[in-house]
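ARCHIVE CARD
Drawer: 12
Card no.: 0347
Subject: one protein chain, sequence and derived structure
Cross-reference: see card 0346
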Amino acid sequence: MRKISGLRNARLDDGQRLVDLAFSDDGTIARVGRALKFPRGATVLDAGGGLLLPSFVDPHLHLDLAYSLDLLPPNRSGTLIEAIRLWSRFKRTLTAENVMQRAVRAIHDEVSYGTGLIRTHVDVATAAGLRLCEGVLAARQVCRDFCDVQVVVFPQDGILRDPGALDLMREAMRMGCDVIGGIAHNERSDEDSRRHIDLLFDLAREFDADIDCHIDETDDPDSRCTEYLAARTIAEGWQGRVTASHVCALGSYPDVHARKVIDLLAEGGVHVVTNPCVNLHLQGRYDRYPRRRGLTRVQELLAAGVNVAAGQDCIRDPFYPLGTGQMLSVAHMLVHADHLSTPALLRQAMRTVTDSAARAMRRRGYGTRVGCRADLVVLPAQSEHEAIRTCPRPQLVLKNARQVLPTSRG
């Protein structure tokens, strides 16, 4: 990857201004303006009026699952329950090398669409041991020069119902993972689900780590883990450090209770990550008609000031047979799924895979301002609206002011 000194003729997201950017030796943005002067011999690329954005962020992915679809029997019901059952059997046979190869492929695919930062969950259930974790950490190392990867320790089979998972989570954190994960609604009782959440906060304090919990990924209106997670966040003083992923049951709650939960999420500064492609596919499977869409209440969360991001979640695995790792496609799907069709809401949709996703991951120095990292993408589009509508491939991707795409021999 060659070092780039600057860009010319990049279009900012208002769709009007063309600017030049100069980069510092440390890979950050040093200047933004018109007709900037560069030293003789500096490598300066012409964006050609393309739309300039900070690199896309995928705040919810499963790299250990990626591209495993053809290795397992088919998910004939298409349900989350059957996918978990198929994966539980298969993961016992996986090697770290196999996981690494598939994870590297998925990271490359995401980067090819302009992603520069990924948060991946990795299964550390006792049936998987730490092999999957070893494979994902190895993939992160292989791809470290062109993509940043946060790793979440994820007890796929629960904590209380899978004795030994808690010890594996602790060991995975010592191996270099970053975030405490969970799946609170997958325990046997409401009491166990609350205990599961308590244990997540105990681990978070032990490692001074953030939390990202799969929670209420169900259509069941009686699944009430999210409110307890938000309440514990406030009680523990972990505001801004907790993410609630999926939160599908919120869409099935009575409006009065949903309002209570949304207010708690806002008070606790809990980030919400929705996964529109996968949850449109998985949820509502037991409904007749009308069928629920299965997503969380994105517009109501946004209106309450909750930070909402959107993730790819799965790429060609037993949970979801599609997926490419293109975050523009995720935003495109979210627009359809929750009617984000006004100009303001279209801008919010783009934020879910850029600024809001970076905020959920507590990424500093993110953006197109002076002082931000030169992790940038240039799209052949005139505006964010056009980019979401057409979902083009990037014409240029930079990482720390180094050219990732198109591949350069310089």
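Annotation on reverse: DSSP finds 13 helices and 16 strands in the chain. The mean pLDDT is 96.
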